[in-house]
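S.,

Sequence below, as promised.
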Amino acid sequence: MLAKVRKSGAPVVMPEAVRTQAGDKIPAPVEVLANGQKKDVAGVSVEAVPMYNLTRGPAAGQLFHTKGRGNGYILTFGDKRVYIAGDTEPTPEMMALRNIDVAFLPMNQPYTMTPQQAADAVKTFRPKIVYPYHYRGTDVNEFQRLVAGEAGIEVRLRRWY
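The prediction came back faster than expected:
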């Protein structure tokens, strides 16, 4: 899939876990970022935000995504900040975000957020525009209803699948 959308020589940003799993399948250039790291990549500021589960997992005592393994990312284009959450529940790091122009939030149960959790998150960190994504089997209209009326937050629904 990556080969279909990647322009030759374009850098790919990923966490170490993905790099380790992919091995040599992803040709250079590759930029590996750990949670909290920030780097300019091809003229774009990229900040790795921890993405993980707080409560959900495949079995008691296990989580689908553990802290430190994966990243969401804030991409800064000039004065615009775009947050792509990754597969995550609403973490303290997400709730502490500020000055986000566009946010992409997942609502794929049981792996990520419920519509209520996603709505609570955007009401806290207040992106100007939010796109729900990765929402198979989730009622994104419920998310839109929960955010409706929040001044300064626009929900944009698109066909993800």
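The mean pLDDT is 95.

Coffee later?
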